[in-house]
């Protein structure tokens, strides 16, 4: 089948999985907020679903929510500093994989529509214009703005609508978090797993990746062949 569009996941696909530096980020955040590390991290973890579906319109609001749950207070400048730390670490995590930008450019040069479908909190769309991906993708669907998250089939339909393409004409490339590939298939897209270089690094959310028996690639550049683009070696 001739595909018209390619839709990518973000973390674990276009960029690496969120790094272990997240622990350091949280240590620095609680230091500037002057709150207990264990309690803050426990409550922050509980807000993951809320942040991903857009319960907080700003990073400040998400931090304030946790502080309120702790009955803790922080000065405005402390919250600003905590936000700045979080944004710095997340921006570093948004560095493209080695072959990401070249793959996107080649697909676009060949006339393919490009989409992004990411379960993420508000930091990602805020930082997106500052990344190397800015302008490289035609339609970006961030769960926190769409108020939908994978594997809800409606978010896949939304991505196809934004790209003006029917699901059957779309490749969906992702790392298999939260059974996103099976959901893409139910929606009518052609799902493709991009394998992690280290299976041991996958979280419990990646059960689908471990059990996947469908089409799979090991690097983004392999997506060119899946899209029907022949590459020549010189």
Explain how this protein is built.
This protein is α/β, with parallel strands linked by helices and 234 residues long. The protein has two domains: 5-16 and 95-226, 3-Layer(aba) Sandwich (Rossmann fold); 21-93. It is built from twelve helices and six strands. It has helices at 21-33, 37-46, 48-52, 59-69, 76-93, 100-109, 123-127, 143-146, 153-163, 180-187, 207-211, 223-226, and strands at 5-8, 113-118, 139-142, 170-174, 190-194, 216-217. The chain has a six-stranded parallel beta sheet, sandwiched between helices. Helix 11 (207-211) links the parallel strand 5 (190-194) and strand 6.
Which secondary structure elements does this structure contain, and how are they paired or packed?
Layout: E1 5-8, H1 21-33, H2 37-46, H3 48-52, H4 59-69, H5 76-93, H6 100-109, E2 113-118, H7 123-127, E3 139-142, H8 143-146, H9 153-163, E4 170-174, H10 180-187, E5 190-194, H11 207-211, E6 216-217, H12 223-226
Parallel strand pairs: 1-2, 1-4, 2-3, 4-5, 5-6
Helix pairs in contact: 1-5, 4-5, 9-10
Output the keywords:
Rossmann fold; 234 residues; 2 domains; elongated
- Treating each run of at least 4 consecutive H or I residues as one helix, how many helices? 12
Identify the strand order in the major beta sheet.
Answer: 3-2-1-4-5-6
Major beta sheet, specifics? 6 strands, parallel
**Oligomerization:** single chain
Could you name the CATH class of the largest domain?
Alpha Beta
